Acyl-CoA synthetase family member 2, mitochondrial
Amino acid sequence: MSKLSYLSNPRQKPYRYSTITELIQKNTQRFPDHEILIHRGIDGSRDAMTYKELYMEASKLAKFLVYKGIQKGDKIALFGPNTLEWVVGELAILLAGGVAVHLTISVTDARDLWDIFRQADCKAFLIDPGKGEAFLDAIFQLLALFRRRRPSRQYKDIDSNDATVLFLREVDGIQGYRNLPGILEMEDTDVQLPVLYPEDEILIFTTSGSTGKPKMVSHSHFDVNNIDLFEQEPTMESIQEKTYNDRPFGWVGGSPVIQISNGITRVFSDSSLAIKGNDIMSVWDMIKAERCSKALLMPYCLGDLIAMKNSYTDDFQLDVILCGGQIIDNFYTQVVGVYTKNLVVVYGSTEAGFVTMRPPIQEGDTLEIGDIGGPVGGVELKTVDDSGDVLPRGVPGELCIRSRMVFKGYFQNEEANKVSFIGNRWFRSGDIATITNDNNVVIQGRIKDIISRGTRKIMPDAVEDVVIQMSGLLHVAVVPVPDKRLYEEVCLCFVTDRNSDVTVDDVKRFCEEHFEVRQSADGLGERPTYYFKFDSFPMLGTGKPNKRMIKMDAENRLKNQ
């Protein structure tokens, strides 16, 4: 065994040289009437869609997009909560040869959505407001931005005859725009959908940027078709198994087309339900009602289930709970034998996809904190020092990843690409890890200044850039503070101008007005939870606030509350 911190796992399965749309079409032919998507509502409602229904609706919408001028390779933005209509929109974009740009909202004026739309040069925007009025405020803000700023020399005025904005359901109070129900009622056309190839770009996800601005991560058909977690061919038996996954559709871990192309029956609900902390048994009741065999549950969900385990008397257990997104320890293994037969820890990222998996933890097994197992098939790992040189085993360093599924680079961001890769296409994960003599990877933390709240990665700069706009503030510093349930929480510290009478309540009210929570993908968004006023900040020699000292001060204040 090499003394260097390098691991590889040769792929046992042949690569699939095909497109996602080919796989979904094949599954539609084999299992036309199978319910592949099941949405459960907190009100007890159940809505489902078969392969045949999904493919028919998506094909018709795709032909409409092509008829309206969408060409192969065009970027099309997609925004909304987890719904069946959202999946129709995503598949339609791919069938039309477009690239689905997944958007999530963080600020109330929707300018973050608009910025990504412009940066990606999107040619159209598909919007699902969801049921009720939760997303209407953001949509009205977005439409106002379109009317004021959309270049008119290349596009007609935004009205019912323009494909620039299209809604995936009828919405009371929004008139004059095309919507999916109306398109489905149109007569069929002879529009031909484009020929697609495995290397075609199809999905763009956004991820936290080092400057506070999101970076865009692009993946092809080939990338997502060869995730080692999935079986090569669904069978009549395997497709009957159901997997619960309420991750936001706009995040790589929640992308529905990746699952349905692999014949995985997806049960889902509103992503914000589980993170609220008081509804975990409602989520569990959905899982039980659908007789799911697997579930992807975040660490905070496991913690909530563990808190209820002494009163849980049901015999129902999952076969497997998959968990990841943050460092976990042996505490979380308490779900084994109560809620599940096995717990599997997984590790991945928006850029690298599915990277590692620990062998199943069964009753009586222990989990070392941060242990994420070894690489999945086709993945190589190593840890390096600041110079990019590989380290000996047992020595902490930055975890680097190489595989055919790692993204090719951030979209239109050469500066980020230069620092994200080292020689021979090794991607720098930004995680500090140790590779052990037992061929396991143990994550120990992050290099970058990122807050991990409930598996959502938050850049402090992004929050600071919004808050500093408030009149009367001299300095702001956003720091992470420990949280037993969500791993970390967002703490906003500030110093006011000498003559300002701004209070903590004033700053909190400003954040409530400017940071979107209700319409955010995970129900938390980027809004701070804790607020502390400082007379002055400890400063570094560079003239910047000393965040390490500020963080220590904030933690002490919380302990004394």
